[in-house]
Each structure stands twice: as structure tokens, then as C-alpha cells.
Design brief:
The radius of gyration is 16 Å and the shape is globular. It is 29% helix and 31% strand. Strand 2 and strand 3 form a beta hairpin. It has an eleven-stranded mixed β-sheet with strand order 4-3-2-5-1-6-7-8-9-10-11, sandwiched between helices.
């Protein structure tokens, strides 16, 4: 699942596309629609729990990507109990929801951390290195932690990489995955 306030749509599409390229039969439940592989099944906001369960019940899907905003997490939760990869794009900009009794930053943190809490011990929490609140969630992951950002020199990325963690960043218009031992240009 991908959780955040801004930027989810592009990231969910990218993750689904990469899974398709790897040969996985991929489903996508996003704010733009519900997709089974490249086929649009339903147009419009499909981030609701019911769309997620449709995706999970489809026997032709062996990899699923879900887009979640803070409102959906607070109101409905997720359609799944655990995940291999949980991505948090931007938790720092999450608006408070006093109408849901979520009227302080600590309560909103508890909502936004849901995606990291669901990562399995053999999974990975992927966190935005530009977002201080998302970075606080690293300690909560039962699995590995990977940071992403626009620059390898970003302090959080440099420190995480130096401590043996995996990172993803941009260099000269290319996406680079790196760890302490080396780098791989992805695309």
C-alpha cells in the first residue's frame, strides 16, 4: 500500500507498472480507478475498502497495489491485514481531522503509521527521506526500511546508507538504488 497526502497517484501507477514489467499480474486500487493489469475495471476514486477487497478476491491478481489517504485510513482502514511493502509518501503534511476526533499531530501520526505497522517481518517499509514524520516511522517497522529521496546527499539518505540500509535517489535524471556496498541504476 502507498499512504500519504500528495504524490500517491504517480507512485502507485509507477509501482503497479514495475510489477507488471516484472511479469506479475497486477491489480491497482487508486484514486483514478480500479485496474486488473492494464484493464480499467472501474473509473473514479477506488481507494475505498470495498474496491480493495475486490482486488484481493480476484484470482487473476498475484500482486496488488493500494493507494491510501489519511481520510480513508481513519474512516475505513485497509482491505488487507499485512503487506510485503508499505510506502509512506508524506505524513508531515497530513491535515488534522477534528470531526473524527483526530485533532492533534500525535493522533494523526498513529493513523499514518498504519501502513508501516502492516509490513511483515520479511517485508520493507519505504519512507520518504524528505518527510521528518515519515522518518520517525522507521523505528516501527518489523521489516527492513528503505528510504527514498531526490538526492544521495540528503542527510537521512546518507546516514541510512552508511548504516547499511537501502536507499533510492535521483542522480543525473536516473533512479539509483544503493546500499553501503554499491549502486544499481534502475532506469
Amino acid at each position: 500500500g502507498v499512504t500519504g497526502v500528495r504524490g500517491n497517484r504517480q507512485l502507485t501507477r509507477l509501482v503497479a507498472h514495475l510489477l507488471q514489467l516484472s511479469g506479475r499480474r497486477t491489480g491497482l486500487a487508486s484514486a483514478e480507478g480500479l485496474y486488473f493489469d492494464r484493464r480499467e475495471v472501474k473509473r473514479g476514486d477506488c481507494t475505498a475498502w470495498e474496491c480493495g477487497t475486490q482486488l484481493l478476491m480476484n484470482k487473476l491478481v498475484d500482486a496488488a497495489v493500494f493507494e491510501h489517504g489519511p481520510e480513508r485510513l481513519a474512516n475505513e482502514g485497509t482491505a488487507y491485514d499485512y503487506c510485503q511493502i508499505g510506502i509512506v509518501t508524506d505524513a508531515a503534511d497530513t491535515p488534522l481531522m477534528p470531526e473524527r476526533w483526530l485533532d492533534d499531530a500525535d493522533l494523526m501520526f498513529r493513523v499514518m503509521r498504519t501502513q508501516v505497522d502492516l509490513v511483515l517481518s520479511y517485508g520493507t517499509a519505504v519512507l520518504n527521506a524528505h518527510d521528518a514524520v515519515a522518518l520517525e516511522m522507521a523505528r516501527l517497522s518489523k521489516g527492513a526500511v528503505m528510504l527514498y529521496g531526490t538526492d544521495a546527499a540528503l542527510p537521512a539518505i546518507a546516514a541510512h546508507r552508511a548504516s547499511g540500509g537501502r536507499v533510492v535517489f535521483l542522480r543525473d535524471g536516473r533512479v539509483v538504488m544503493a546500499a553501503a556496498e554499491g549502486e544499481t541504476v534502475l532506469f
